[in-house]
């Protein structure tokens, strides 16, 4: 009875028996809540032609394939698109493109489909999860196109909320740490750095990984030729500081800030001083007196007002820490 509501015009345009069966199944299992909206979407986006062509993507020339992929992008981004059809677009476009270097448009379509199907708030997404994770893992490692890799790095934040911690640890984390070593593209290194810090602070990585392997990867960025990456590293370490064990923090964070204080790049000095203001109370008197103050005091007269001002704030903080543990000196009576 539900199928009878589809307009004769729509059914007349379908000459693919499998497609008619697919539409019928989508309606019967309840993936489509509004028949009128479903019909409207089919007519406005020419979905009949699109789905019919998906089955022959593997024999189309590249130009035709990309035209179909772009049409699929428009369709799958529609909230009213039923998930079975999103999944069909995903696996068909992936299968047709897997043997070649995937273009940005192709990967974007696949990524949008994955985000729709991996939505943890929707039980129907669990049906497709295994295949979706396999495809996503392939995308992370297959492309040599740096623009594609950058897009995938920047999209990790969207995926993190849709997958479990184990997948983040075993699949996404290695992809990001490998991206940190891309010496030819500073933008990729910087994006990977910021995403790794976000993963760690959101507790998507094991504590042992953060305090061990991740810190070793980040340590290599202290000598990065891009000054902005060195500054962002210090900002990131400041975010990691509260979640690191005390013994690790004293061995890693303090020395990193000391290097930042002597960095010729002004924002690195600012980042190091800001980090010390936020975490300086946990520094020991020995560390303050012998390691940090010798690097901070020259900055008290820095020509950069922001640097000098923050240096004053850090020195005041440290002196208060020292005074709390030192008896006031009393002048002897003569």
Structure description:
The protein is an all-alpha fold. It is built from 18 helices and no strands. The chain has helices at 8-12, 17-28, 35-45, 47-54, 62-76, 83-97, 104-117, 129-142, 146-154, 156-160, 165-179, 186-201, 207-219, 227-240, 246-261, 266-279, 285-296, 305-324. Helix 15 runs parallel beside helix 17 (285-296). The longest helix has 20 residues, at 305-324. It starts with 7 loop residues before the first helix and ends in a 10-residue tail after the last helix. Residues 1-16 and 29-35 have low confidence and may be disordered.
Cα-atom Rg, whole angstroms? 28 Å
Which structural class should the secondary elements be placed in? mainly alpha
Beta-strand content:
under 5%
Low-confidence stretches: 1-16, 29-35
Shape, per Cα inertia axes: elongated
User: Helix count?
Assistant: 18
For the biggest sheet, the summary is: none
**Cα separation of the termini:** 109 Å
What is the ordering of alpha helices and beta strands?
HHHHHHHHHHHHHHHHHH
Helix content range: 55-70%
Determine the mean pLDDT: 80
| Number of DSSP strand runs | 0
Note the main attributes of this structure.
334 residues; mainly alpha; 18 helices; 68% helix; elongated; disordered N terminus
């Amino acid at each position: 009875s539900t199928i009878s509501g589809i307009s004769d015009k729509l059914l007349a345009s379908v000459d693919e028996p499998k497609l008619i069966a697919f539409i019928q199944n989508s309606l019967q299992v309840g993936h489509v809540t509004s028949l009128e909206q479903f019909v409207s979407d089919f007519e406005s986006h020419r979905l009949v032609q699109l789905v019919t062509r998906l089955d022959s993507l593997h024999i189309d020339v590249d130009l035709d394939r990309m035209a179909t992929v772009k049409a699929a992008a428009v369709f799958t981004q529609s909230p009213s698109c039923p998930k079975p059809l999103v999944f069909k677009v995903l696996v068909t476009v992936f299968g047709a493109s897997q043997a070649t270097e995937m273009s940005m448009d192709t990967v974007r379509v696949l990524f949008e489909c994955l985000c729709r199907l991996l939505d943890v708030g929707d039980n129907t997404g669990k049906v497709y999860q295994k295949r979706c994770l396999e495809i996503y893992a392939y995308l992370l490692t297959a492309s040599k196109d740096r623009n594609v890799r950058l897009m995938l790095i920047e999209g990790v934040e969207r995926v993190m909320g849709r997958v479990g911690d184990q997948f983040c640890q075993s699949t996404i984390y290695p992809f990001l740490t490998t991206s940190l070593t891309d010496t030819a593209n500073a933008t990729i290194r910087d994006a990977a750095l910021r995403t790794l810090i976000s993963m760690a602070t959101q507790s998507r990585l094991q504590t042992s990984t953060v305090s061990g392997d991740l810190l070793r990867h980040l340590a290599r960025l202290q000598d990065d030729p891009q000054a902005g990456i060195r500054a962002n590293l210090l900002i990131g370490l400041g975010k990691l500081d509260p979640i690191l064990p005390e013994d690790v923090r004293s061995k890693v964070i303090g020395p990193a800030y000391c290097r930042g204080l002597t960095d010729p790049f002004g924002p690195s000095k600012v980042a190091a001083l800001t980090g010390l203001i936020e975490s300086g109370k946990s520094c020991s008197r020995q560390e303050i007196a012998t390691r940090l103050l010798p690097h901070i005091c020259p900055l008290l007269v820095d020509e950069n007002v922001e640097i000098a001002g923050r240096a004053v704030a850090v020195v005041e903080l440290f002196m208060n820490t020292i005074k709390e543990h030192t008896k006031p000196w009393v002048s002897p009576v003569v």
